Amino acid sequence: MDVSKIFKKKIEMDNDLSNRYIDLDPNGYFIIKIDLQTKQIILDHYLNNINEDGYAIDPKTNEPIKCNSKGIKTCNATFTGKSAKEIGIAITEKRNDLISRFDHALYLGRELQKAEECLYKKLPYIQD
Q: pLDDT per residue over 46-86, tens digit each?
């Protein structure tokens, strides 16, 4: 099998895995951005409430929060750094109360690494 076919299969598998159901971390979620001007990764943490069906709900209305919600949520904590490792250490050693699930920690590590690569290659970063 040639490399392009292997790579295509890997992309298809990753896309399928990205679309599976996951339980939300009751400790909250993260939004990752990069700032090409300051050459920093920015990691914002948000608290969430989760209903009995596993959906994040708006604390005011108790309605599920949709991915395309226009409501502005207040950030709980912000971390900035020049590398995925720097931010990873900050959130696991200085604020280890923000992640309660292993799958969430693994996901965050992958995304921070991807953000770092985009930062140093001067590419746009899109969080999965």
A: 887 778 887 777 767 878 777 666 666 778 999 999 999 99
**Which helix H or strand E contains 84, and what residues bound it?**
helix 84-89
* pTM, full prediction: 0.79
Helices (H) and strands (E) in the chain, counts: 3, 5
Rg of the chain, C-alpha, whole Å: 16
* C-beta of residue 41 within 8 angstroms of C-beta of residue 115: yes
101's CB contacts (< 8 A; 6+ apart) are 23, 25
Percentage helix, strand, coil, to 5, in the chain?
A: 35, 20, 45
Instruction: Name the residue with tokens 């399928």.
Output: 16
Beta bridge pairs of residue 77: 45
